Amino acid sequence: MTHINHNIRIPHTNGLSQDAQGHWWGMLSSTQILTEQQENLNNHNNKEQQQTKKKKRRGNQKAQHLRRRERRQVQKQSNNKNHMAESVIIVVDDNDGNVEGEQETQIQIYSLNKHLETRSENKRKRQELNRDNMNVSRSFSQVSISQENKPKRNKRTATTTNETNNQLVKVVNGQNQKENDNELLPMNSIQKFKPSYLKISDQVFKQMLSNGIDNGHEIIQCLNTDEKLQFVCQMTEKTNIIYYLDLQRQLWRDYYDHGMRENQWAPRVSKSFAKQNYTCRTYSFAKHQVEKHLQTITRQFHNRLIELQQSITQLENNVQQWQPYIDPAILCNAINTCVQSAQQRLRQQADYKRKMLTLDSNDRNLITKFYDFKPNDERVQLAKQIWQTTANILKTQEQEEILRKRIFIRRLPSAYDKIINQPLDYVKPMLSNKVLDKDRRASLVSNYSKTITQYKFDFMTLTLDTIQNVIRGHQQRLVKLQNKLPQCCNQMLIEAIENRRQAMEKRHELYLKHKLHSFFDEAPMAVSND
Helix/strand/coil (H, E, C) string of 333-348? Predict the structure, then answer.
């Protein structure tokens, strides 16, 4: 029988050995032994460092833990009470942002079953977003709070912001009102000449009425009370508005008749085309705009006419009690004469616009007729050069005529006066010296004034001579271009180019005449801002 050695160890796959008696023995390598020794050494050093390290004082931690537990219990009870309620009333104080700055309180009721979840854990959880209403509190520790605590703002800053917003609203409303006025009355250039009789003094108003008739002193004697004067002034303003609306109605009627006759309503061309051919981009108005404004003004005219008739009836009744007595027909005649005389500028502006409408339409038709011949690029460029040179001549002539009128009325451009009078700033301190005698000072001032006046005259004369030389240069270039026409254009094309050039001159003649007539005119007695 073979003897079994009980000290034989059986190798095992997991790195451990088992003896015959069933005990397991770990087989440790030298590396594992060194690592275990190093770890033991490190642990021993850490314990020594912890013993030697001074502990920080954090107060009475037991009291802190006690207070923390009490807060959690109170919070838990508060949450339970709030969850027992079916709904929560949320009060939102919101500034409505109106002009008066009033505040309104909005009360909204939200159901906790829909918006909140019951949380019984003491551990703080991440806030969950409520997509239904952002005013509901997101923190479950503050369920009764309706909205987030917004940072406090300076009252002065808030007031300034509200004032700025109010001003912005007023500006926007004002711009919208101006846009509406521009749509309703596109003739703003004639509206500025519309007088307003409610803004002048009583003495001036009496004088204006008395100048309208032969026996004007009777009107001044009759209007001896504020009540009479106020009534007649309002009646004059109504008459003024009626004449103004009638003028607008006639002008809109001319736009409508012109569009129906030409079968063109606000024809528009590109900006580059208008610049190359020296014409306006558009003229007149669209058909629906003309019809709309014509209907609106006609309705306003009839309403104002009814109001004036009522005022005339009231005047006839009141005059019977006035002392001294005045014939209502004489007073009405004086009002009509006064209003028609004051609206002379308005009629001139309306007549100018009618003529310009016809000339603009004719100019556009002549350009269209030229391109209907389908000229090549060489002929088109030659025609554009002729029209460009003609436009330069007309523009330079305009500068000459305006400067001549300035010299005639002795109103030079402000830039010229400022530059020429600038040397006087250096002379004034010397002339004000007390050493100078009064007679000598007056003589020196007179000599300076004469010298500057003569310099202005010489300077304007030289400027006019320069302008005339520029005009002659453009005219010489125009003659050279016109001599090229027979070489590349037929007779019909030459006539089309020449007709358009003559139309440019005719249009500019009317424009320059109107500008010289109104360029230095004084403003009316009063301008309506409505």
Answer: HHHHHHHHHHCHHHHH
Radius of gyration of the chain from Cα atoms? 48
Question: CA 252, CA 357: separation in Å to the nearest integer?
Answer: 12
Environment class of residue 57 by beta-carbon count within 10 Å: exposed (0-12), middle (13-18) or buried (19+)? exposed
Three-state SS at 3: coil
Percent of the chain exceeding pLDDT 90 equals 30
Write the burial class of residue 276 (CB in 10 Å: 0-12 exposed, 13-18 middle, 19+ buried).
Answer: middle
List the end-to-end C-alpha distance of the chain, in Å, as a whole number. Answer: 137
Express each pLDDT in 164-219 by its tens digit: 344 433 433 444 444 444 444 445 555 666 777 778 888 888 888 888 777 778 88
* CB-based contact 343:197 (threshold 8 Å): no
The pLDDT tens digits of the residues spanning 339-354 come to 998 898 889 999 999 9
AA identity, residue 358: T
What's the half-sphere exposure (Cβ side, CA atoms, 13 Å) at 145? 11
Count of alpha carbons within 13 angstroms of residue 198, beta-carbon side: 11
Cα(256)–Cα(170) distance, rounded to whole angstroms?
35
> Whole-angstrom Cα distance, residue 116 to residue 144?
12
- Interatomic CA distance for residues 504 and 498, integer angstroms: 10
Residue whose entry in the numeric block shows the structure tokens 């009814």 = 306
Classify residue 131 by its DSSP letter: S
CB atoms within 10 A of CB 415: 8
Written as one letter, the residue type at 393 is: I
Measured distance CA(349)–CA(190) in Å, rounded: 6
Q: Residues near 59 by Cβ (< 8 Å), separated by ≥ 6?
A: none
User: Is the Cα torsion angle 487, 492, 498, 500 positive or negative in sign?
Assistant: negative
Instruction: Give the C-alpha distances (Å, rounded to integers) separating 382 from 277, 299, 481, 482, 498.
Output: 11, 52, 7, 9, 12
Whether the bond into 324 is cis, omega within 30 of 0:
yes
By the 10 Å C-beta count (0-12 exposed, 13-18 middle, 19+ buried), 282 is classed as middle
The DSSP annotation for 210-235 comes to: HHTSTTHHHHHHH--SHHHHHHHHHH
The H or E element containing residue 106 is strand 103-111
C-alpha distance from residue 198 to each of 170, 236, 340, 369, 525 (Å):
25, 9, 17, 52, 11
In 10 A of CB 143, how many CB atoms?
A: 17
Average pLDDT over residues 362-380: 93
270 versus 103: the higher-pLDDT residue is 270
Which tokens in the block code for residue 148? 């987030």
Amino acid letter for position 443: S
pTM for the whole thing? 0.58
Write down the residue that tokens 């009141």 correspond to: 318
Handedness of CA 170, 176, 181, 184 (dihedral sign): negative
Gap between the Cα atoms of 285 and 187, Å rounded:
12
Cα dihedral 311, 316, 321, 326, rounded to 10, equals: 110
